[in-house]
């Protein structure tokens, strides 16, 4: 077996771009610090709406290819080398937004058997042996079927891996503290006239917003803000970045958070307010 870095972080996401939006600074930080950072993306995101007019002809397989290229570029900007698709490229198709006909496609991720999908993730877990896993809450952060399914598959894989010989010590869900979100949106309203976006999103559009008390962990990504922003910009079909803000295909401006927040849902708190996902894990400091 090849020598592994002492700290190993696994992130499970639904589509290419979710990793950079949610965890770009965290991924860049741990990669820069020499940890093994592994990203598993569950679908190619081929049902995503495309922002740039010159790329709007891309759909289905063509969009999948483009988003795969975007993901590779984003990972280069974050310094992350270890990334792949759950069960191999194209194993699970993008389910589209909740309530659309795409949800009925038998090959879409939403229709996947959770245990079978989790077993693909267990293969990765047994190879990487991560101490820390990051994914979404049980609502998928904001209710997208692929995000809910990514949550289910990740949480099930944690259980299956433990039965098979590798216990992931800490599991985190992506979060945004409500007070931080409110402040950021207040700033956004002040800045909006100078931005290339005409309207602002609302805090309820942001995935994973919870009461501040539920936040266990805060990763200050100031040093990696440029890397995160560049990684998000690499997902050009999906994200329009402008300074401290960005918009998705709905063209509604929202804050780009360079400090990233988490809720520890499995494992022991390393300290009262953690500033390191690995805190308290033996042999990783
Ligand atoms: Zn997504």
From TrEMBL:
Swiss-Prot/TrEMBL keywords: Hydrolase, Metal-binding, Zinc
Highest taxon in the source lineage: Bacteria
A Pfam family of this chain: PIG-L
EC number: 3.5.1.103
Cofactor(s) of this protein: Zn(2+)
GO MF entries: N-acetylglucosaminylinositol deacetylase activity
InterPro entries recorded: GlcNAc_PI_deacetylase-related, LmbE-like_dom_sf, Mycothiol_biosynthesis_MshB
Catalytic activity: 1D-myo-inositol 2-acetamido-2-deoxy-alpha-D-glucopyranoside + H2O = 1D-myo-inositol 2-amino-2-deoxy-alpha-D-glucopyranoside + acetate
Ligand binding (Zn(2+)): 15, 18, 147
Family: Belongs to the MshB deacetylase family.
General function of this protein: Catalyzes the deacetylation of 1D-myo-inositol 2-acetamido-2-deoxy-alpha-D-glucopyranoside (GlcNAc-Ins) in the mycothiol biosynthesis pathway.
PANTHER family named in the record: 1D-MYO-INOSITOL 2-ACETAMIDO-2-DEOXY-ALPHA-D-GLUCOPYRANOSIDE DEACETYLASE (PTHR12993:SF26), N-ACETYLGLUCOSAMINYL-PHOSPHATIDYLINOSITOL DE-N-ACETYLASE-RELATED (PTHR12993)
Protein name: 1D-myo-inositol 2-acetamido-2-deoxy-alpha-D-glucopyranoside deacetylase
Protein's organism: Streptomyces doebereineriae
């Amino acid at each position: 077996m090849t020598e592994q870095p002492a700290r190993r972080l696994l992130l499970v996401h639904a589509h290419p771009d979710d990793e950079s939006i949610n965890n770009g600074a965290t991924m860049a930080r741990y990669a820069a610090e020499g940890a093994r950072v592994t990203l598993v993306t569950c679908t190619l995101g081929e049902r995503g709406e495309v922002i740039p007019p010159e790329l709007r002809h891309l759909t289905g397989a063509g969009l999948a290819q483009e988003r795969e290229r975007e993901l590779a570029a984003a990972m280069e900007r974050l310094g992350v080398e270890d990334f792949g698709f759950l069960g191999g490229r194209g194993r699970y198709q993008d389910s589209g937004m909740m309530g659309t006909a795409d949800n009925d496609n038998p090959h879409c991720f939403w229709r996947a058997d959770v245990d079978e999908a989790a077993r693909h993730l267990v293969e990765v877990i047994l190879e990487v042996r991560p101490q820390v896993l990051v994914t979404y809450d049980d609502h998928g952060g904001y209710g997208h079927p692929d995000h809910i399914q990514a949550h289910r598959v990740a949480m099930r894989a944690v259980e299956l891996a433990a039965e098979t010989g590798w216990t992931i010590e800490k599991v985190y869900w992506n979060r945004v503290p409500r007070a931080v979100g409110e402040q950021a949106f207040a700033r956004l309203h002040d800045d909006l006239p100078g931005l290339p976006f005409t309207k602002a999103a609302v805090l309820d559009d942001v995935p994973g917003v919870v009461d501040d008390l539920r936040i266990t962990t805060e990763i200050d990504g100031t040093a990696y803000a440029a890397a995160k922003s560049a990684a998000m910009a690499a997902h050009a079909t999906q994200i329009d970045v402008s300074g401290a803000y960005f918009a998705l295909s709905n063209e509604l401006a929202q804050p780009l958070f360079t400090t990233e927040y988490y809720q520890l849902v499995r494992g022991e708190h390393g300290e009262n307010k953690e500033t390191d996902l690995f805190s308290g894990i033996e042999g990783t400091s």
